[in-house]
Every structure is written in C-alpha cells, then in structure tokens.
C-alpha cells in the first residue's frame, strides 16, 4: 500500500512555492481547500489596512484622494492584474462586483452589435451570469439563449450579439478552450465575454493572445482580496473607442470634478467606473494581487495542476465511492475537483468539524479547491484521509452535520 503521508511530504519538500504559505495568516491546524470561494488572508493585509485607516483616512482625510493616490487605485490595481490574464495594463480596471461588471459589459456589447439581441450562455453557468442577462432581457434589451456546452457552436448564429461563458465552471471545474470558442463566436460576428472568476490566479489566461473582447473576474477568490473584494473588468484596446456602458455614473465621467450636467465617458476602461471606489477594499485587494504577481502565473499554474493531480489520484485510490465530475486531464480543468455523493453536504460538514475546509455546491457536489499559493500536498492528503475516516466511522450521520446555514 502506498504511504501517502510520505509521498505528500516528499512533494512538499520539493515544492518551489512552499515558502509562500508563510505570507498568509493560516492556522497550521487548518487544511484550507476553499480558496476558490474565499481566498486566505495575506499576512500583510491587516497592517496595510491599519495604515489605510489610521494614516490615509484618519490623518490624511480627504486629501488622501490625491495624496495617497486613492483616486487612481482602480486603474493601478487593474494594471497589476493585467499580467495574470494576458492583458495590457491600461485594459483592466478594478471595480464593483463581478455581477455589476457583467451588467456593464453585456450592455456595452449589445450596443456594439445593433440589430442583434441574443446573449448566448450555457445552462448551469454560475447563476449571477445568467441572472444579469435576464436583467437586460427584462428591460427589453437582450434575449437570453442557453445551449449546452457541446452545442455552443451550433447555437451561434447571426442573431447572437454576445457569447458569455465562465472559463472554468464553478461546479465541475471544466475549462473551456478559450481560443477555439472566441474564434467560433467571431466567425459569426458575435463578441465574447469571459468570466474569469475561477481562472485568475490559478490557470493560464491569455486574453489578447486569443483575441477576446471582454472579461470580468473576481477579487476575493484566488486573488485573496478579502470578502466582497472589488472585482475587475477587461476590455480589449480595439474596443475602447466604441465602449459605451449603461451604468453612466460620475466616476466614469471624463471629468468627474467638472460637475457637468451631461455625461461624457472617460477614455478607455476608466469609463467602467460608476460610483466612488471602496478604498479599504481596494487596499486589501492590492495586497492580494501584489502577492500573486510576485509569485508569478507559471509556477502557480504548475503547482495547481500538481495539487489536483495528486488529490485526484489519492481520492481514486482511497475513496473510490465518491465519483469525480471534474475533467481527468489537469490541463482541461481549473484548480478544484468536485465529487458527487448523495450526502455530500453532510460529508462536507463533517470534514469542516475536523478542520478540513472544502465546500458544498447544491445539490450533491463536494468541492476541494487548490489555491496554489498556500495549499500543501499534506493538506490534500489530510482531506482524503479524513474523508475516508468520516465514511468508515459513519461520523457524517451525526444530526448537527445535516443542519443547513444561510451560506453553504
Ligand atoms: C464567484 C463568482 C462570481 C462572483 O460574483 P460577485 O458579483 O462578485 O459576487 C461571479 N461569477 C462566477 C463564475 C463566480 O465564480
């Protein structure tokens, strides 16, 4: 029988990213396999926020908009995210939530394709993506069309203004071929908007390399920006001149402090700002993004694949009764694995009680996420061995593990 404890220790000893775990405030007793839902706390964040609050806000007061550079943070942080997604610095902006950025970019895309109303996506996409299309549909601006993953190609016709897909599926982890789908959409005259929420910081993304049009992504998952961190939006430079987003707030105006009655959009992605940016959230996001940028995408991707490959192998050997619904090829999936079981919820709660934190996605999936900056191979082995113990002991049947809280 394989000694997985030994094998995990060997892989950790050889791991070039092992030293980065110390950059996070993570209790040694916790195996945190949910960084794909809420990234861990960077060690530098509390102090940076203290400084932002006491000095920048407390002492600098309103002068910090200029003096501490608050006003330029959305563009600055956008520029720091750019190399993680194959973008140019001036094409990315940190702003609002993913949902709100989806609304802006769906609206912008529809205005760039007059005469076309269909926004094409897939059933089972992350709900907010589908809901934000529905919101535009309710206003008579869009028509929502859903096609299964294998039928996307045939659902693309000359009514489609925009193809909106999530690059890495939040539940299964399946990753689209971004280059191929972007090409297929463009061949029918449609634009493409990629949701990178489960991609940025974990898998290779080359937006300009594939010639995509728009993208959005999440700040609180692999970017470790903290709960409710600002999200980001990307617009290919070739679209900047034609960009018109519907949430025409004053911070996206060409001259916000001219206080004019008529709206005139700021050039480029600055137009994507709507209201005043949340500066404390921006400061926390800046620390998280800076960490990821310093580690670099190449080693992050390599580690992510190694972690999921290891876990997949050990799960198959030790807990074969849980069926994996994620693609078998590490290069065809994101940075998490999903396992289905009729009692996935209870199994997940029992794991959490043993301080192995994964999550549950309705109706029956147990997700194990591998944030490559701080997850160790020992964490992964611990998750599998605890799961084995929970099933063998029947521990998951304890009544407290079937109580559902508001957030699952
Ligand atoms: C996490 C996630 C979001 C988050 O949206 P918010 O509006 O920022 O809460 C959006 N899309 C996908 C695919 C996600 O995984």
UniProtKB/TrEMBL annotation:
EC number(s) given by UniProt: 3.7.1.3
A biological-process GO annotation: L-kynurenine catabolic process
Cofactor: pyridoxal 5'-phosphate
UniProt keyword list: Hydrolase, Pyridine nucleotide biosynthesis, Pyridoxal phosphate
N6-(pyridoxal phosphate)lysine modification, residue list: 221
Superkingdom as given in the UniProt entry: Bacteria
GO molecular function list: kynureninase activity; pyridoxal phosphate binding
Reactions catalysed according to its record: L-kynurenine + H2O = anthranilate + L-alanine + H(+); 3-hydroxy-L-kynurenine + H2O = 3-hydroxyanthranilate + L-alanine + H(+)
Top-rank EC class of the record's enzyme: hydrolase
Any one of the GO CC terms: cytoplasm
Residues making up the signal peptide according to the UniProt record: none
Pathway: Cofactor biosynthesis; NAD(+) biosynthesis; quinolinate from L-kynurenine: step 2/3; Amino-acid degradation; L-kynurenine degradation; L-alanine and anthranilate from L-kynurenine: step 1/1
Coiled coil regions, renumbered to chain: none
Pfam families tied to this protein: KYNU_C
Annotated binding of pyridoxal 5'-phosphate, by residue: 99, 126-129, 166, 195, 198, 220, 250, 276
Record's keyword annotation contains Hydrolase: yes
Family per similarity comment: Belongs to the kynureninase family.
PANTHER family, A to Z: KYNURENINASE
Subunit structure: Homodimer.
Function: Catalyzes the cleavage of L-kynurenine (L-Kyn) and L-3-hydroxykynurenine (L-3OHKyn) into anthranilic acid (AA) and 3-hydroxyanthranilic acid (3-OHAA), respectively.
Name the UniProt record assigns to this protein: Kynureninase
Species the sequence originates in: Aurantiacibacter arachoides
């Amino acid at each position: 029988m394989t000694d997985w404890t030994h094998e995990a220790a060997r892989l950790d000893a050889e791991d070039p990213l092992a030293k980065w775990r110390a950059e996070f405030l993570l209790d040694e007793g916790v195996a945190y396999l949910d960084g794909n839902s809420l990234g861990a706390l960077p060690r530098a964040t509390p102090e940076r926020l203290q400084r932002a609050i006491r000095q920048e806000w407390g002492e600098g007061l309103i002068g910090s908009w200029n003096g501490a550079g608050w006003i330029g943070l959305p563009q600055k942080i956008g520029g720091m995210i750019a190399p993680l997604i194959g973008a140019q610095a001036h094409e990315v902006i940190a702003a609002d939530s993913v949902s709100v950025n989806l609304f802006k970019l769906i609206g912008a895309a529809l205005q760039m394709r007059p005469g076309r109303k269909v926004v094409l996506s897939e059933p089972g996409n992350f709900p907010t993506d589908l809901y934000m299309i529905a919101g535009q549909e309710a206003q008579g601006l869009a028509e929502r069309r859903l096609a299964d993953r294998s039928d996307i190609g045939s659902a693309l016709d000359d009514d489609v203004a925009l193809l909106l897909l999530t690059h890495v599926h939040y539940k299964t982890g399946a990753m689209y071929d971004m280059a191929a789908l972007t090409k297929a959409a463009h061949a029918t005259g449609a634009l493409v908007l990629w949701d990178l929420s489960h991609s940025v910081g974990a898998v290779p993304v080359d937006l300009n390399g594939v010639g995509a049009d728009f993208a959005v992504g999440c700040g609180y998952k692999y970017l470790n920006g903290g709960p409710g961190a600002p999200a980001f939006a990307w617009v290919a430079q070739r679209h900047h001149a034609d960009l018109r987003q519907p949430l025409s707030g004053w911070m996206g105006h060409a001259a916000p402090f001219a206080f004019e009655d008529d709206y005139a959009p700021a050039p480029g992605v600055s137009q994507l700002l709507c209201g005043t940016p949340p500066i404390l959230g921006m400061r926390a996001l800046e620390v998280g993004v800076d960490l990821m940028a310093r580690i670099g995408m190449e080693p992050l991707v390599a580690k992510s694949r190694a972690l999921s490959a290891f876990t997949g192998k050990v799960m198959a050997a030790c807990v074969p009764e849980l069926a994996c619904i994620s693609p078998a090829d590490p290069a065809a999936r994101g940075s998490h694995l999903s396992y289905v079981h009729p009692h996935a919820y209870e199994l997940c709660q029992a794991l959490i009680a043993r301080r192995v934190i994964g999550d549950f996605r309705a109706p029956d999936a147990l997700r194990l996420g591998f944030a490559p900056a701080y997850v160790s191979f020992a964490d992964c082995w611990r998750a599998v061995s605890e799961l084995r113990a929970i099933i063998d002991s029947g521990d998951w049947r304890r009544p407290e593990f079937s109580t559902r809280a508001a957030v699952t």
